[in-house]
Amino acid sequence: MTKAIDHLLNRLEAIGHVTDEDRKALRNLPIKEANLVKGTEIVADGETSSSCCMVVSGYLCRSKTLLDGSRQIFSLHTAGDIPDLHSLHLNRMDHSLSAISDCRIARIPHEAVYNALDACPSLNALLWRDTLIDSAAFRAWMLMLGQAEAVPRMAHFFCELFTRAAMAGLTENNTFPLPLTQADLGDILGISMVHANRTLQDLRGRGVMDFDQQIVSILRWDDLRKLGQFDPSYLHYLDGRIGRENPAKL
User: Fold this and answer.
1) CA angle, corner 236, sides to 25 and 208, nearest 5?
2) Please, are residues 7 and 168 in contact by the beta-carbon 8 Å criterion?
3) Quick check: is 139 in a domain?
4) Beta partners for residue 72, in sequence order
5) What's the maximum distance between 2 C-alpha atoms anywhere in the chain?
């Protein structure tokens, strides 16, 4: 629990002021942790939910699937994220939430979250801001998915994940963990596994980043950011250095 709450607090501190009361309320939330294997569906499209899911480790994804089985991934979520926070007010899911890697999650009953938000109006406003930023990231994701070629699309993807990892305190020097395969990258970016491999080799050949043994290494941040047309303003963090200079310097 401590690690997950710490990562959540790091994220919230990057986008607003966290009071002592906010911290206490978050640390006192009753949660139930569970380990999930890759592919586990946490909440299915159309189901109703009575709890929120916080990521402790690994990655979750939001997605929708057509009748023919074709899947579209809308977002990735890692430690400290609560990807279904909206279920507090829209408890019928209009998409699926599932594990895209082996992961650990913590479930938080809606009632406990309601009580914490009632007791801490500032926390209510902060989580609302976090939800709005999540929506902004979704719009950026859709723009790159719909309009950018594979190389800038993948470059932007790594830039955003690195920035968000830095905000949550998950980076070490110029690296962060990404327990995904090249097939996963293709699925996420809407390209074939072969195309994903070629695109990744292109980025490696340019010397801007590497992805090996499930670790992403940022080698030339400014060049990667320019290649991905990455403007981090949509993440609305308080510290203007994140994403403009190397996030690992923070």
Assistant:
1) 115
2) yes
3) no
4) 64
5) 53
Domains in the chain, number: 2
Question: What is the structure's pLDDT at 42?
Answer: 96
CA distance 94 to 115: 25
Q: Is 245 left (phi over 0), alpha (psi -120 to 50) or beta?
A: beta
Residue 6, domain member (yes or no): yes
69: left (phi over 0), alpha (psi -120 to 50) or beta: left
Same domain, 97 and 189: no
Q: What is the pLDDT of residues 116-137, one digit of tens each?
A: 999 999 999 999 999 999 999 9
What is the domain range of residue 25? 2-133
209-212 and 215-218: which strand pairing?
Answer: antiparallel
pLDDT tens track for 13-35: 999 999 999 999 999 999 999 99
Q: Could you tell me if 84 and 51 are in contact, meaning their C-beta atoms sit under 8 angstroms apart? A: no
Nearest alpha carbon to residue 105 among 74, 70, 79: 79
Alpha carbon distances (Å) from 217 to 133, 158, 173, 202, 245? 25, 10, 9, 15, 15
Same domain for 9 and 120, yes or no, is yes
Residues 125, 210 within the same domain: no
Q: Which residues of 129-140 are buried (b: 16+ CB within 10 A; e: fewer)?
A: ebeebbeebeeb
